[in-house]
Automatic annotation (TrEMBL):
This is 4-hydroxy-tetrahydrodipicolinate reductase. (S)-2,3,4,5-tetrahydrodipicolinate binds at residues 157, 166-167. NADP(+) binds at residue 35. The keyword tRNA processing does not apply. It holds the Pfam family DapB_C. Residues 129-265 form the Dihydrodipicolinate reductase C-terminal domain. NAD(+) binds at residues 8-13, 34, 98-100, 123-126. GO terms for molecular function: 4-hydroxy-tetrahydrodipicolinate reductase; NAD binding; NADP binding; oxidoreductase activity, acting on CH or CH2 groups, NAD or NADP as acceptor. GO terms for cellular component: cytosol. Its main location: cytoplasm. The active site is at 156 (proton donor/acceptor), 160 (proton donor). It comes from Palleronia sediminis.
Length: 268
Protein backbone atom coordinates (compact mmCIF):
# COMPACT_ATOMS: atom_id res chain seq x y z
CA UNK A 1 0.00 0.00 0.00
CA UNK A 2 1.43 3.42 -0.96
CA UNK A 3 0.61 6.17 1.55
CA UNK A 4 -0.17 9.54 -0.05
CA UNK A 5 -0.66 13.12 1.12
CA UNK A 6 -2.59 15.74 -0.85
CA UNK A 7 -1.62 19.41 -0.74
CA UNK A 8 -4.22 22.05 -1.59
CA UNK A 9 -6.97 19.61 -0.64
CA UNK A 10 -9.84 22.12 -0.85
CA UNK A 11 -8.89 23.15 -4.41
CA UNK A 12 -10.42 22.01 -7.70
CA UNK A 13 -7.70 19.40 -8.15
CA UNK A 14 -7.29 18.60 -4.43
CA UNK A 15 -10.89 17.33 -4.22
CA UNK A 16 -10.43 15.23 -7.37
CA UNK A 17 -7.28 13.71 -5.89
CA UNK A 18 -9.07 12.63 -2.70
CA UNK A 19 -11.70 10.79 -4.78
CA UNK A 20 -9.08 9.21 -7.02
CA UNK A 21 -6.86 8.01 -4.16
CA UNK A 22 -9.92 6.58 -2.37
CA UNK A 23 -10.83 4.69 -5.57
CA UNK A 24 -7.32 3.36 -6.27
CA UNK A 25 -6.28 -0.09 -5.13
CA UNK A 26 -2.83 0.05 -3.58
CA UNK A 27 -3.13 3.73 -2.54
CA UNK A 28 -4.27 5.19 0.76
CA UNK A 29 -4.77 8.81 1.83
CA UNK A 30 -2.63 9.41 4.93
CA UNK A 31 -2.52 13.23 5.24
CA UNK A 32 -4.08 16.36 3.76
CA UNK A 33 -2.69 19.89 3.68
CA UNK A 34 -4.05 23.38 3.12
CA UNK A 35 -2.36 26.77 3.31
CA UNK A 36 -1.95 28.23 6.82
CA UNK A 37 -5.04 30.29 7.77
CA UNK A 38 -7.37 28.40 5.41
CA UNK A 39 -10.91 27.75 6.77
CA UNK A 40 -10.42 24.00 6.57
CA UNK A 41 -7.35 23.85 8.89
CA UNK A 42 -8.07 21.58 11.89
CA UNK A 43 -11.38 20.40 10.35
CA UNK A 44 -12.09 16.75 9.64
CA UNK A 45 -11.66 16.21 5.88
CA UNK A 46 -14.95 14.31 5.48
CA UNK A 47 -16.90 17.05 7.27
CA UNK A 48 -15.15 19.84 5.34
CA UNK A 49 -16.17 18.08 2.11
CA UNK A 50 -19.78 18.06 3.28
CA UNK A 51 -19.95 14.38 4.21
CA UNK A 52 -19.37 12.13 7.23
CA UNK A 53 -16.22 12.52 9.39
CA UNK A 54 -13.41 10.26 8.21
CA UNK A 55 -10.84 10.71 10.97
CA UNK A 56 -8.36 12.66 8.82
CA UNK A 57 -7.68 16.24 9.95
CA UNK A 58 -6.64 18.98 7.49
CA UNK A 59 -3.29 20.40 8.56
CA UNK A 60 -0.62 22.85 7.43
CA UNK A 61 2.45 21.09 8.84
CA UNK A 62 4.35 19.74 5.83
CA UNK A 63 6.85 17.65 7.81
CA UNK A 64 4.04 15.95 9.77
CA UNK A 65 2.26 15.12 6.48
CA UNK A 66 5.48 13.72 5.01
CA UNK A 67 6.11 11.67 8.15
CA UNK A 68 2.74 9.99 7.49
CA UNK A 69 3.01 9.65 3.69
CA UNK A 70 5.52 8.28 1.19
CA UNK A 71 4.42 10.61 -1.61
CA UNK A 72 2.98 14.13 -1.61
CA UNK A 73 0.65 14.96 -4.50
CA UNK A 74 0.69 18.68 -5.04
CA UNK A 75 -1.50 20.88 -7.25
CA UNK A 76 -1.12 24.23 -5.46
CA UNK A 77 0.94 27.33 -6.38
CA UNK A 78 4.61 27.84 -7.34
CA UNK A 79 5.99 29.18 -4.01
CA UNK A 80 4.24 26.44 -2.03
CA UNK A 81 5.47 23.76 -4.43
CA UNK A 82 9.11 24.85 -4.12
CA UNK A 83 8.86 24.63 -0.32
CA UNK A 84 7.20 21.18 -0.55
CA UNK A 85 10.01 19.95 -2.85
CA UNK A 86 12.61 21.11 -0.31
CA UNK A 87 10.77 19.26 2.48
CA UNK A 88 10.50 16.12 0.30
CA UNK A 89 14.27 16.31 -0.26
CA UNK A 90 14.98 16.66 3.48
CA UNK A 91 12.79 13.67 4.33
CA UNK A 92 13.57 11.56 1.23
CA UNK A 93 9.97 11.43 -0.06
CA UNK A 94 8.18 11.32 -3.39
CA UNK A 95 6.65 14.54 -4.70
CA UNK A 96 4.23 14.61 -7.65
CA UNK A 97 3.96 18.17 -8.96
CA UNK A 98 1.00 19.25 -11.07
CA UNK A 99 1.37 22.95 -10.22
CA UNK A 100 2.04 25.30 -13.17
CA UNK A 101 3.09 28.94 -13.57
CA UNK A 102 6.70 28.57 -12.40
CA UNK A 103 9.41 31.18 -12.90
CA UNK A 104 12.79 29.87 -14.15
CA UNK A 105 14.33 30.13 -10.64
CA UNK A 106 11.56 27.86 -9.27
CA UNK A 107 12.49 25.09 -11.70
CA UNK A 108 16.13 25.38 -10.62
CA UNK A 109 15.04 25.03 -6.97
CA UNK A 110 12.98 21.93 -7.85
CA UNK A 111 15.96 20.45 -9.73
CA UNK A 112 18.09 21.08 -6.63
CA UNK A 113 15.52 19.31 -4.41
CA UNK A 114 15.56 16.29 -6.72
CA UNK A 115 19.37 16.25 -6.57
CA UNK A 116 19.18 16.46 -2.75
CA UNK A 117 16.95 13.40 -2.24
CA UNK A 118 13.35 13.99 -3.44
CA UNK A 119 11.78 11.69 -6.05
CA UNK A 120 9.96 14.29 -8.13
CA UNK A 121 7.54 13.71 -11.00
CA UNK A 122 6.56 17.05 -12.55
CA UNK A 123 4.34 17.63 -15.57
CA UNK A 124 2.30 20.60 -16.79
CA UNK A 125 -0.28 18.03 -17.81
CA UNK A 126 -0.73 14.56 -16.32
CA UNK A 127 -2.92 13.12 -19.10
CA UNK A 128 -1.81 10.33 -21.41
CA UNK A 129 -3.29 12.19 -24.39
CA UNK A 130 -1.31 15.40 -23.92
CA UNK A 131 1.94 13.53 -23.31
CA UNK A 132 1.41 11.54 -26.53
CA UNK A 133 0.50 14.78 -28.32
CA UNK A 134 3.80 16.34 -27.17
CA UNK A 135 5.66 13.42 -28.75
CA UNK A 136 3.80 13.89 -32.05
CA UNK A 137 4.34 17.67 -32.00
CA UNK A 138 8.10 17.13 -31.62
CA UNK A 139 8.14 14.80 -34.63
CA UNK A 140 6.01 17.07 -36.82
CA UNK A 141 8.10 20.14 -35.92
CA UNK A 142 11.25 18.21 -36.83
CA UNK A 143 9.79 17.05 -40.16
CA UNK A 144 8.37 20.42 -41.26
CA UNK A 145 11.12 22.89 -40.36
CA UNK A 146 10.77 26.67 -40.35
CA UNK A 147 8.62 26.91 -43.52
CA UNK A 148 5.68 26.27 -41.18
CA UNK A 149 4.88 28.80 -38.43
CA UNK A 150 4.07 27.24 -35.05
CA UNK A 151 1.26 28.79 -32.98
CA UNK A 152 -0.12 27.30 -29.75
CA UNK A 153 -3.62 28.28 -28.61
CA UNK A 154 -4.97 27.23 -25.22
CA UNK A 155 -8.32 27.76 -23.45
CA UNK A 156 -9.10 27.34 -19.73
CA UNK A 157 -11.72 28.24 -17.11
CA UNK A 158 -12.09 31.78 -15.75
CA UNK A 159 -10.29 30.98 -12.44
CA UNK A 160 -6.93 30.01 -13.95
CA UNK A 161 -4.19 32.37 -12.76
CA UNK A 162 -1.23 31.56 -15.06
CA UNK A 163 -0.69 31.93 -18.80
CA UNK A 164 0.41 30.38 -21.05
CA UNK A 165 -0.77 27.15 -19.45
CA UNK A 166 1.76 24.57 -18.28
CA UNK A 167 0.51 22.32 -21.06
CA UNK A 168 1.02 24.98 -23.74
CA UNK A 169 4.59 25.47 -22.50
CA UNK A 170 5.15 21.67 -22.55
CA UNK A 171 3.92 21.56 -26.16
CA UNK A 172 6.10 24.58 -26.99
CA UNK A 173 9.13 22.82 -25.47
CA UNK A 174 8.35 19.75 -27.59
CA UNK A 175 8.11 21.85 -30.77
CA UNK A 176 11.34 23.67 -29.92
CA UNK A 177 13.12 20.33 -29.32
CA UNK A 178 11.90 19.13 -32.71
CA UNK A 179 13.42 22.23 -34.30
CA UNK A 180 16.62 21.98 -32.28
CA UNK A 181 16.19 25.41 -30.64
CA UNK A 182 15.61 26.66 -27.10
CA UNK A 183 11.99 27.71 -26.40
CA UNK A 184 13.22 30.71 -24.40
CA UNK A 185 14.99 32.04 -27.50
CA UNK A 186 11.96 31.79 -29.82
CA UNK A 187 8.82 32.08 -27.66
CA UNK A 188 6.41 34.93 -28.51
CA UNK A 189 4.09 35.04 -25.49
CA UNK A 190 1.87 38.05 -26.08
CA UNK A 191 0.97 40.26 -29.04
CA UNK A 192 -0.79 43.59 -28.82
CA UNK A 193 -0.70 46.78 -30.92
CA UNK A 194 1.82 47.42 -33.74
CA UNK A 195 3.70 44.16 -33.32
CA UNK A 196 5.38 44.15 -36.73
CA UNK A 197 5.39 41.05 -38.92
CA UNK A 198 5.82 37.62 -37.41
CA UNK A 199 9.39 36.85 -36.32
CA UNK A 200 10.81 33.98 -38.44
CA UNK A 201 11.14 30.85 -36.33
CA UNK A 202 8.96 32.19 -33.49
CA UNK A 203 6.72 29.83 -31.51
CA UNK A 204 3.64 31.90 -30.65
CA UNK A 205 1.26 31.48 -27.70
CA UNK A 206 -2.32 32.70 -27.23
CA UNK A 207 -4.51 32.17 -24.15
CA UNK A 208 -8.30 32.21 -23.83
CA UNK A 209 -9.97 32.32 -20.38
CA UNK A 210 -13.68 31.71 -19.82
CA UNK A 211 -16.44 29.81 -18.04
CA UNK A 212 -15.66 26.30 -16.89
CA UNK A 213 -13.43 25.15 -19.77
CA UNK A 214 -11.35 22.27 -18.35
CA UNK A 215 -8.42 22.58 -20.79
CA UNK A 216 -8.10 22.81 -24.58
CA UNK A 217 -4.89 23.01 -26.61
CA UNK A 218 -4.16 23.32 -30.30
CA UNK A 219 -0.75 23.37 -31.96
CA UNK A 220 -0.96 24.89 -35.41
CA UNK A 221 1.68 24.52 -38.12
CA UNK A 222 0.76 27.20 -40.66
CA UNK A 223 2.50 26.93 -44.02
CA UNK A 224 1.96 28.26 -47.55
CA UNK A 225 -1.35 26.89 -48.81
CA UNK A 226 -1.89 24.44 -45.93
CA UNK A 227 -2.20 24.33 -42.14
CA UNK A 228 -1.84 21.30 -39.89
CA UNK A 229 -3.59 21.46 -36.50
CA UNK A 230 -3.02 18.98 -33.66
CA UNK A 231 -5.32 19.31 -30.69
CA UNK A 232 -6.39 17.92 -27.32
CA UNK A 233 -9.52 18.62 -25.30
CA UNK A 234 -9.93 17.63 -21.66
CA UNK A 235 -13.59 17.39 -20.59
CA UNK A 236 -13.13 16.13 -17.00
CA UNK A 237 -10.34 17.19 -14.63
CA UNK A 238 -10.56 13.72 -13.04
CA UNK A 239 -8.27 12.87 -15.97
CA UNK A 240 -5.41 14.83 -14.36
CA UNK A 241 -6.04 13.22 -10.97
CA UNK A 242 -5.84 9.74 -12.53
CA UNK A 243 -2.46 10.59 -14.06
CA UNK A 244 -1.19 12.12 -10.81
CA UNK A 245 -2.11 9.09 -8.69
CA UNK A 246 -0.52 6.81 -11.28
CA UNK A 247 2.63 8.95 -11.01
CA UNK A 248 2.53 8.75 -7.19
CA UNK A 249 2.34 4.92 -7.27
CA UNK A 250 5.25 4.91 -9.74
CA UNK A 251 7.35 7.36 -7.68
CA UNK A 252 6.99 5.41 -4.42
CA UNK A 253 9.78 2.95 -5.26
CA UNK A 254 11.95 5.07 -7.57
CA UNK A 255 15.32 6.58 -6.61
CA UNK A 256 15.56 10.35 -6.11
CA UNK A 257 15.55 12.38 -9.31
CA UNK A 258 13.47 14.74 -11.45
CA UNK A 259 11.12 12.72 -13.69
CA UNK A 260 8.17 13.57 -15.92
CA UNK A 261 4.99 11.82 -17.12
CA UNK A 262 6.86 10.38 -20.12
CA UNK A 263 8.93 8.37 -17.59
CA UNK A 264 5.79 7.23 -15.75
CA UNK A 265 4.08 6.21 -19.00
CA UNK A 266 7.20 4.42 -20.24
CA UNK A 267 7.49 6.77 -23.25
CA UNK A 268 11.07 7.95 -22.59
N1 LIG B 1 -0.46 19.23 -14.33
C1 LIG B 1 -1.76 19.05 -14.54
O1 LIG B 1 -2.21 18.05 -15.15
C2 LIG B 1 -2.72 20.06 -13.98
C3 LIG B 1 -4.11 19.89 -14.07
C4 LIG B 1 -4.94 20.82 -13.43
C5 LIG B 1 -4.41 21.90 -12.74
N2 LIG B 1 -3.06 22.04 -12.70
C6 LIG B 1 -2.42 23.11 -11.92
O2 LIG B 1 -2.61 22.82 -10.54
C7 LIG B 1 -2.63 24.04 -9.78
C8 LIG B 1 -3.89 24.08 -8.92
O3 LIG B 1 -5.03 24.11 -9.76
P1 LIG B 1 -6.51 24.16 -9.14
O4 LIG B 1 -7.43 24.43 -10.28
O5 LIG B 1 -6.74 22.97 -8.26
O6 LIG B 1 -6.39 25.49 -8.23
P2 LIG B 1 -7.19 25.88 -6.91
O7 LIG B 1 -6.94 27.33 -6.71
O8 LIG B 1 -8.59 25.38 -6.98
O9 LIG B 1 -6.44 25.02 -5.77
C9 LIG B 1 -5.17 25.32 -5.25
C10 LIG B 1 -5.20 24.98 -3.78
O10 LIG B 1 -3.87 25.06 -3.25
C11 LIG B 1 -3.98 25.62 -1.95
N3 LIG B 1 -2.68 26.14 -1.50
C12 LIG B 1 -2.05 27.28 -1.88
N4 LIG B 1 -0.90 27.44 -1.17
C13 LIG B 1 -0.81 26.37 -0.35
C14 LIG B 1 0.13 25.97 0.66
N5 LIG B 1 1.20 26.70 0.95
N6 LIG B 1 -0.10 24.79 1.32
C15 LIG B 1 -1.18 24.04 1.04
N7 LIG B 1 -2.11 24.38 0.12
C16 LIG B 1 -1.94 25.53 -0.56
C17 LIG B 1 -5.05 26.70 -2.10
O11 LIG B 1 -5.58 27.12 -0.84
C18 LIG B 1 -6.07 25.96 -2.96
O12 LIG B 1 -6.98 25.21 -2.17
C19 LIG B 1 -2.52 25.17 -10.81
O13 LIG B 1 -1.17 25.55 -10.94
C20 LIG B 1 -2.99 24.50 -12.12
O14 LIG B 1 -2.48 25.09 -13.27
C21 LIG B 1 -2.22 21.16 -13.30
O1 LIG C 1 -7.10 24.02 -14.69
C1 LIG C 1 -5.89 24.26 -14.82
O2 LIG C 1 -5.32 25.20 -14.22
C2 LIG C 1 -5.08 23.38 -15.69
N1 LIG C 1 -3.78 23.55 -15.65
C3 LIG C 1 -2.82 22.79 -16.39
C4 LIG C 1 -2.06 23.70 -17.33
O3 LIG C 1 -1.69 24.82 -16.93
O4 LIG C 1 -1.79 23.30 -18.46
C5 LIG C 1 -3.41 21.58 -17.07
C6 LIG C 1 -4.79 21.79 -17.58
C7 LIG C 1 -5.72 22.34 -16.50
Amino acid sequence: MVTMAVAGVSGRMGRMLVDRIDATEGATLAAVLERPGHDWIDADLGTALGGRPRGLVVGSDTDAALDAAEVLVDFTAPAATVAFAQAAARLGRGHVIGTTGFAPGDIEAIDAAAAAGATIVRAGNMSLGVNLLARVVEQVARALGEGFDIEIVEAHHRHKVDAPSGTALMLGEAAARGRGVSLDAVADRGRDGMTGARRPGAIGFAAIRGGDIVGEHEVMFAGEGETIALSHRATDRGLFARGAVRAALWAADRPAGHYDMMDVLGLN
